[in-house]
């Protein structure tokens, strides 16, 4: 439901107002837009007030075929949201001409009401509707009729419909108070119900033209926003910690992720998809961050009380069983159909390129396929890069050259997205072209609006950034179905087909974090399946899209300003750029023990992943970006704190008091402590007074969670008390722990003591020799005078 320029009410009590035509009174509205730009409509919304709100609750059939009911039935609700009662509330159904250009799939939903010029009769909803009260209605109108009022639809196509509500607010005159719009895809017309003669060809069903089918490929996203608590290094013993327990609900029966999985399971089952066309066109697009999280949940997990204190108080999570069951089902589904990995945690690839840290790039773009393969037991499709934003700047595209051959799935390669799906872009792999598979912007925009949290995609052009705040879920779903089917119902001319004989292609790409429920997911897949079975479309696998030969000239990427606003905040990027080298430095100094499952990379990988989660675009397209920004700020702050804890966990133990060196060459005895669960290589940095010479003992390895006594050779000249400063660093110079001062006493007298000792020894030898000489000659020694033998 779109209120701007379409919601009218009584503004005065004057005779002029009472005399106004029922469809002509304008009135202010207080509705607030959810997007930065909604065209001319947005400016009026701030100055208009609203009396009633109209919501579309059901549309049947949601997609018309030759075998459908020949009537369209629309159910809805009118609610008095104003400050006064409204009398004589009436509704009617109206239709605009069928959509004949892709841009109209979005812009027609904000068009003037006068364009919906095929109208049905008004139907009374309530004689009086008090403030805060609601009334439901059901409108039914034939698609076509030779004898009665109808929607006058004469051929297949996508048709905009509008439900208009009129009423008379207290103290005012009759006016048009609100309307709601949606698209109705007509894949074929059923028989005219007003004609009984079965031989009347004019009343016969009208099938669509299948002379120019569209080759359809569908990406089915399996992703969620980051949930793992930040700042917790890897472990083989500790359970994973999450910031909330929402996944327990989402993975359980009826939850969002469970329903996404169930819809794909059902739609591609042998009994439903008998010719396997839908299964061939479908590819699961899996977020590795979600797999890391769910896999951790299967072993038992904790939910922290405060995300800002990830190592603090926590409670046991409730979703272990649901996580295990869901993961098993995903493994089974992935084993029988195409599966590919998306970049880790919906990371902002443009921000990642600006940081330019090789470890982060690999973790975001190379490792995801390995995570998917290892977790699901499949060989996933490589060679595809799908940024969550749907767009990429030229610099980031050029940075993909280290990944090997890859295809960029994007919406911004060319201004005209009716061009062939796979085009080369300048600045690609190794300076050569980078292939891009272009998805349909109107279809992707409409799909992003479906679900519990409607989004306006980053790539949506300004004219298509319409306000979604008043639209019901039913209306948004109808808009998506219309967008999905439009191209297949719009045949090219013979000249166009001869000029471009290749089949038209359609990439159906919902947002990675899609908030649809089970009914919405099943309806989208059912519509694609109907297109395939009716001959309007053919199945094209994603591997086939990626392997097509490219014959078109190169194009440049166009990066919209909206992508900057929807991207990772600048301070978060700067913090991540500062933290990434520190993680790499500590990883390089940790010891890889073949006997331990906890390797240095496994220990620090969660911290790199935290940085990627901080750079995520998840939540950045919401009306309020505040929560996403706060979560990103917390993540980089927690990584910094985790690094401080790691560096502080390795230190030299200060002795309880001064100790004494027994000699001038007695070694310094030090104890180094490592509280980390992995071993580490360290170096001692000793600052000694000039009277002491200390020998460098080189790199030393400390065991995990243990201590080691270190003997440092030293030579002292002089005696007395001296202070030695001792610090410990990594092999790449990062300081570990806190420096300590060691007090030493020494009894060494240096060179003087050596001379005195030498002289005394010489004198002693001289006297002993003299005595022995006299005894040998039998002469009495003067030293023996007074001594008489007995």
Automatic annotation (TrEMBL):
Keywords: Membrane, Signal, Transmembrane, Transmembrane helix. Residues 1-31 form the signal peptide. Residues 26-45 are annotated as: Disordered. The chain crosses the membrane at residues 748-768. The keyword Transmembrane applies. It comes from the Bacteria. This is Glycoprotein.
């Amino acid at each position: 439901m779109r209120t701007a320029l379409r919601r009218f009410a009584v503004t005065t009590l004057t005779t002029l107002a009472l005399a106004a035509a029922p469809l002509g009174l304008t009135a202010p509205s207080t509705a607030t837009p959810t997007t930065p730009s909604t065209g001319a409509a947005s400016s009026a919304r701030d100055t208009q007030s609203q009396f009633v709100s109209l919501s579309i609750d059901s549309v049947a059939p949601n997609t018309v075929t030759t075998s459908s009911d020949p009537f369209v039935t629309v159910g809805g609700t009118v609610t008095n949201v104003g400050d006064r009662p409204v009398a004589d509330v009436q509704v009617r159904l109206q239709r605009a001409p069928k959509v004949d250009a892709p841009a109209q799939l979005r812009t027609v939903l904000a068009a003037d009401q006068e364009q919906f010029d095929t109208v049905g009769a008004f139907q009374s909803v309530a004689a009086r509707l008090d403030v805060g009260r609601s009334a439901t209605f059901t409108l039914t109108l034939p698609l076509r009729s030779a004898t009665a009022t109808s929607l006058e639809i004469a051929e297949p196509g996508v048709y905009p419909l509008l439900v208009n509500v009129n009423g008379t607010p207290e103290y005012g005159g009759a006016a048009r108070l609100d309307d709601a719009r949606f698209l109705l895809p007509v894949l074929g017309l059923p028989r005219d119900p007003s004609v009984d003669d079965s031989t009347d060809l004019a009343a016969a069903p009208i099938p669509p033209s299948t002379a120019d089918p569209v080759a359809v490929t569908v990406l089915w996203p399996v992703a969620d926003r980051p949930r793992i608590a930040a700042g917790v290094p890897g472990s083989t013993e500790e359970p994973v910690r999450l910031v909330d327990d929402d996944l327990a609900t989402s993975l359980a029966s009826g939850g969002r992720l469970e329903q996404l999985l169930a819809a794909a399971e059902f739609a591609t089952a042998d009994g439903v998809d008998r010719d396997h066309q839908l299964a061939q066109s479908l590819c699961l697009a899996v977020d590795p961050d979600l797999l890391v999280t769910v896999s951790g949940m299967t072993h038992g997990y904790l939910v922290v009380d405060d995300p800002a204190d990830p190592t603090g108080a926590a409670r046991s999570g409730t979703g272990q069983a649901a996580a295990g069951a869901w993961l098993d089902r995903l493994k089974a589904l992935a084993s029988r159909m195409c599966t590919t990995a998306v970049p880790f945690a919906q990371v902002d690839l443009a921000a990642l390129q600006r940081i330019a840290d090789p470890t982060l790039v690999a973790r975001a773009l190379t490792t995801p396929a390995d995570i998917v393969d290892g977790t699901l037991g499949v060989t996933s499709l490589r060679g595809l890069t799908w940024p969550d934003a749907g767009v990429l700047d030229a610099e980031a595209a050029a940075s993909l050259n280290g990944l090997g051959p890859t295809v960029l799935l994007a919406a911004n390669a060319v201004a005209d997205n009716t061009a062939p799906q796979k085009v080369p872009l300048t600045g690609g792999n190794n300076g050569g072209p980078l292939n891009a598979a272009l998805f349909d912007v109107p279809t992707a925009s409409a799909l992003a609006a479906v679900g519990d949290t409607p989004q306006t995609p980053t790539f949506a052009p300004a004219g298509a950034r319409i306000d979604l705040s008043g639209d019901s879920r039913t209306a948004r779903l109808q808009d998506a179905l219309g967008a999905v089917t439009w191209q297949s119902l719009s045949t090219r001319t013979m000249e166009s087909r001869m000029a471009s004989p290749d089949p038209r292609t359609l990439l159906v790409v919902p947002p990675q974090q899609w908030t649809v429920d089970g009914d919405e997911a099943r309806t989208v897949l059912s519509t694609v399946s109907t297109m395939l079975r009716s001959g309007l479309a053919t199945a094209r696998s994603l591997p086939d899209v990626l392997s097509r030969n490219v014959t078109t000239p190169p194009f440049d990427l166009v990066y919209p300003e909206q992508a900057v606003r929807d991207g990772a905040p600048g301070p978060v990027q700067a913090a991540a750029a500062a933290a990434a080298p520190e993680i790499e430095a500590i990883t390089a100094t940790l010891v890889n023990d073949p006997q331990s499952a906890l390797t240095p990379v496994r220990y620090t990988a969660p911290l790199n992943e935290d940085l990627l989660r901080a750079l995520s675009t998840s939540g950045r397209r919401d009306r309020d970006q505040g929560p996403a920004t706060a979560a990103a700020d917390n993540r980089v702050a927690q990584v910094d704190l985790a690094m401080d804890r790691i560096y502080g966990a390795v230190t030299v133990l200060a002795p309880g008091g001064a100790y004494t060196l027994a000699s001038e060459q007695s070694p310094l005895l030090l104890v180094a402590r490592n509280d980390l669960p992995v071993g580490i290589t360290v170096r001692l940095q000793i600052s000694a007074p000039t009277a002491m010479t200390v020998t460098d003992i080189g790199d030393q390895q400390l065991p995990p969670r243990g201590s080691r006594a270190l003997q440092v050779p030293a030579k002292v000249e002089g005696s007395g008390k001296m202070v030695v400063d001792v610090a410990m660093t990594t092999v790449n110079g990062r300081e570990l722990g806190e420096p300590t001062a060691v007090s030493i006493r020494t009894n060494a007298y240096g060179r003087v003591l050596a001379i005195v000792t030498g002289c005394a020894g010489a004198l002693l030898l001289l006297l002993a020799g003299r005595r022995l000489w006299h005894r040998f000659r039998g002469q009495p020694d003067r030293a023996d005078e007074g001594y008489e033998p007995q």
